[in-house]
Structure formats: C-alpha cells, structure tokens
Design brief:
Elements: H1 3-18, E1 27-32, H2 39-55, E2 58-63, H3 70-82, E3 87-90, H4 99-107, E4 111-115, E5 126-129, H5 133-151, E6 156-162, H6 168-180, E7 187-194, H7 199-212, E8 216-221, H8 224-236, E9 244-247, H9 251-260, E10 265-268, H10 271-286, E11 294-296, E12 302-304, E13 310-312, E14 317-320, H11 324-327
This protein binds alpha-L-rhamnopyranose.
Residues 34, 38, 40, 91, 116-117, 163, 169, 197, 223-225, 248 line the site of alpha-L-rhamnopyranose.
Length: 331
C-alpha cells in the first residue's frame, strides 16, 4: 500500500478514536445557568466537567441566557429539547415560570433537576441546595453583625442587595434572614433592593442605597454579582470604613476588596463541588440509579432526598483577610 494512503487512513482512524463528542452512547447533560458570564456558574461548570471526565461517557452542554430572565431560560430549554439531550440541570430564574417547558422536557424522556436556584417540584425530580437554607439566611445576618463589630458600633442599619425578585434561592434566603433578624437586635433592616445579577444594575442599586440611607452601615448581598458590585460602589464612593459590604461571594473576585477594607468577611460554599454534584445526580437519574430516599453524588457522597426531592450539601465557609488569598486561585 502506498505510504501516503496508509498515513491518511491512520489519521482518520486516530481522529475517530480521539474524538469524544456526540458518540452514540454519550450521556448529554445540559447545565443551564441563570445567565452566562457569572463567575459562580463558570466555577460550577468546572465541577461539571470534572464529573464528566470521571464518568467517561458524559458530554456537558454549558448554557444559559445572556440576562437573568425566565424567558431567556425557556428559549434555551426549548432548544435543548429539540437537541434531545438526556438531562437538564437548571439553576432557575423563576421557580414557576419554567415548570411548563420542563414538564414538556420530562414528557420527551429528558431527566430534569434543579440545583442552586430551585424549580417547583412539578417541574423537576430533584433539587440540590448548596446548603441548608435556614443556615444560609442566618449566616448572612451574622456576617452583617460581624461587619458592625468590625466598624466598632453597637447598633446599625443594614440593607439587602439581592439578585432578581423571582430568584428562588435569594428569595428563600431573604425570608430566612428576616426570620433570624429578631435574634440580632443590633441590626435594623432598612431596605431590600434588586440588582438582577447584572453588574451594572447591582452597582447602581448599591449607590442608590448609600444615597437613600445616609446612615447605612452594612450592605448584605446574598449574590456573587451583587456583593462584588456593592464593594466596588463603596470603594468608588469613598465610603470604605463607613459602609461595609458582606454576603455571598467568590474569594477570587473579592480578595482585593477584603484587602481594601470594603469587605470584612463573607461566605460561600464550593461552587465547583456544587456543579460536580449536580452533574452526578443528573447522570444517575439518566441511569435510573436513584431511590426515593437518596441519590449518589460521586466523591461528594449521598444526597438524601426529602418528600419533595430536595437535598442539601455542606455548610458554607467564611472568608476574611486571614484566608481569602489561599482560596482566590481556586474559585
Ligand atoms: C450568584 C447567583 C447564584 C447564587 C450565588 C451565591 O452567583 O445568584 O444563584 O447561588 O450568587
């Protein structure tokens, strides 16, 4: 056989052997996020890719709308149904608005779970919370109390800068914050506003909070987009030391603001582990590997399911000047 032909045949063969995409028996799992371009979700995607590598026959489709709307997610999900993916794992912009389209997905044999921000039980099989909602709510208020202490005052005002008004997760956490507040009599909640997990809107809302409440002591943002924008706003407005920012954020995005003093401390769980665990759950559902009480999450262990299919992972972790740099390279 001519050498050239042999080389060409070998090249084709090796392409066939190394090309992993769209193999017939690949399990295709769509990770649908609130919006593209949010660091928290990109870290979750890293975990999803790790799970896919571990499982071997999984392809992750990381997708979401460009802004944090239910309409945008409905469009994305329609297209995933047309592509006949095997599973959809969604962090929802609205717990009810997505139910009809997700029901349609389920009718077509697609497994559906929510993670991070939940879908109502009618629209999914499992919902994976990053941690106990009550704990997250209480922790956010405790962080605000820590900020007052850092400022050296005994009592003060706090305001909440949230994501969208329909975010399932932030709404539950705000409710839990309000439940915990009576135990923190030093804190007065003076306002709750919404930055929609858009950097520019969150920034404007943070500036408006400072203008509308001249004696504001703490902005609590239970969103990675909101906390970063608020810290930037406090720093740009020259209010470091007067208005403290706290809530839920990524060490990689906030290390500089801890150093500047705009943030005393903040919390988050590991978003890589969350994306990994959501992928494992979706995969096991596709395999039919799930009982009424639990489903496995690979290296993260068992997810115990309550009657509505809700599960929760581990406790959030608190970051401050003593440890933020150690985690800034990870997520
Ligand atoms: C943002 C999103 C996400 C939330 C984190 C804390 O990235 O709103 O849903 O879990 O913040």
């Amino acid at each position: 056989m001519c050498k050239k032909l042999f080389a060409a045949a070998a090249a084709v063969l090796s392409i066939a052997l190394i090309s992993p995409a769209h193999a017939e028996d690949d399990v295709r799992i769509a990770l649908v996020v609130k919006a593209l371009g949010i660091g928290f979700f990109e870290a979750a995607n890293e975990g999803a890719q790790e799970a896919a590598e571990e499982l071997g026959n999984v392809e992750i489709i990381y997708t979401g709308p460009t802004t944090t709307t239910a309409e945008g997610q409905i469009e994305v999900i329609s297209s995933l149904i047309a592509q006949r993916v095997d599973a959809i794992a969604v962090s929802a912009n609205d717990q009810d608005a997505l139910v009809p389209i997700l029901k349609r997905a389920q009718q077509r044999g697609i497994e559906v779970i929510s993670w991070d921000s939940g879908v109502a039980p009618e629209g999914r099989t499992v919902h994976l919370n990053p941690s106990s909602n009550e704990l997250i709510g209480r922790m956010n208020v405790k962080l605000a109390a820590d900020a007052l202490e850092a400022k050296g005052v005994n009592a003060g005002q706090m305001a909440i800068l949230s994501a969208t008004p329909t975010s399932t997760n932030q709404n539950i956490w705000i409710e839990e914050m309000e439940n915990a507040l009576p135990e923190f009599s030093q804190l007065e909640l003076v306002d709750t506003v919404y930055g929609d997990d858009l950097a520019d809107k969150s920034y404007r809302e943070a500036v408006a909070l400072m203008r509308n409440h001249p004696n504001l002591d703490v902005i609590v943002a239970p969103t990675t987009v909101g906390i970063l924008a608020a810290a930037q706003a406090v720093s740009d407005e020259d209010r470091i030391g007067e208005v403290y920012v706290t809530g839920l954020g990524l060490p990689s995005e906030l290390a500089g603001h801890v150093e500047s003093g705009a943030i005393h401390n903040f919390a988050i769980w590991n978003p890589i582990d969350l994306g990994y665990a959501a992928t494992m759950i979706a995969y096991n559902l596709v395999q039919g590997d799930v009982s009424e009480d639990y489903v496995e999450m690979g290296r993260m262990g068992l997810a115990e399911l309550d009657d509505d299919g809700n599960a929760a992972m581990s406790d959030p972790f608190v970051y401050d000047a003593s440890n933020v740099a150690d985690f800034a390279d990870i997520f």
